Amino acid sequence: MVSALGPRPSHALFVSVAPLGQCPLPSEVSTTLNIAADEAYEIFADPMEIPRWLPMLQTARTLTRCDEGLARRVAFTRKLDRGSIGYTLEYRYDPAKLSVAWSTPEGSNIVLTGEAQFIPLSATACLMLYRLIMDLPIVDKLTRRELETHPASHVVAEFREYVRWRC
Q: Superfamily for 25-166?
């Protein structure tokens, strides 16, 4: 299978990650969701919803919107073991490919880049491909636990549970 995220095996779960300590840290995963691809894309394409399904994020605030009304730049606050850290993500949307991409602005001390794509499998199921590259300036106990357990898998598992609960 080839997608916007590159070649993938045809099975429903694929995980890869770089060794801990390698910066930036890339990780990717794919999984099936029991929801139509366009519905999953719609939910994922709303960054304001992310703190509802990803507990490590405390807040999301839209800074700018694109002409279609979707969030273009979003400020996030992320929980740390003893405090929080703020960062901004810039979003790009491709409704034809049902994909959402994001990255921190050039020069940011936090590097977060990623993409999610939703491929229809049937009228009520899709394959979610998710890639994340991150380099955080602060790695505390909470963050280290997340990094050791594969960041992309953590995010996708939280999204899958939210979709299951919501639908």
A: START domain (3.30.530.20)
